[in-house]
């Protein structure tokens, strides 16, 4: 079972590595374009390298003008792989990276504010404990019982003997 999960774990780690840096995302995009263009140039006859780069950019961006299209089965398979990788991996990673930069929680507390809140809670806790101790002292010294919770005469407790 461990052997079956090795490849997905490696793919996941690679995607996280790619997604955490705009430089690596641009590098991966550039590498895919260059590799795709080189393979297209190799598979297709009568194609210049400039046309192959143009084809790779147009194909990877899924625009597909149709001015240059693959004729061999190898180039068509490679085009399908290039489109799939771009649409399913690279473009979503780029979008997710920039979206995460746009989402900023303006209500999030800074460290100083969190420390101030903690100190205030400590003071409130100390005051509550002090109030509870005073209340306990008042009721334990033989003072009168606290008044009943309800002012309705039907709910009043009977007097103690």
From TrEMBL:
Residues 136-161 are annotated as: Disordered. This is Two pore domain potassium channel family protein. InterPro entries: K_chnl_dom (IPR013099), VG_K_chnl (IPR028325). Residues 31-95 form the Potassium channel domain. Keywords: Ion channel, Ion transport, Membrane, Transmembrane, Transmembrane helix, Transport. It is found in: Membrane. It is a multi-pass membrane protein. GO terms for biological process: monoatomic ion transmembrane transport. The chain crosses the membrane at residues 25-43, 77-99.
């Amino acid at each position: 079972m461990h052997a079956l999960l090795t490849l997905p774990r490696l793919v996941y780690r690679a995607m996280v590595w790619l997604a955490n840096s705009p430089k690596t995302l641009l590098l991966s995009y550039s590498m895919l374009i260059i590799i795709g263009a080189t393979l297209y140039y190799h598979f297709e006859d009568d194609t210049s390298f400039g046309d192959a780069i143009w084809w790779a950019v147009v194909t990877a961006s899924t625009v597909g003008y149709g001015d240059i299209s693959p004729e061999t089965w190898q180039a068509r398979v490679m085009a399908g792989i290039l489109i799939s990788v771009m649409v399913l991996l690279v473009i979503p990673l780029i979008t997710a990276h920039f979206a995460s930069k746009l989402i900023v929680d303006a209500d999030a507390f800074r460290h100083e504010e969190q420390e101030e809140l903690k100190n205030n809670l400590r003071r409130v806790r100390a005051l509550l404990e002090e109030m509870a101790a005073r209340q306990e002292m008042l009721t334990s010294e033989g003072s009168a019982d606290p008044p009943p919770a309800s002012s309705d005469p039907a709910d009043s407790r009977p007097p103690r003997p």
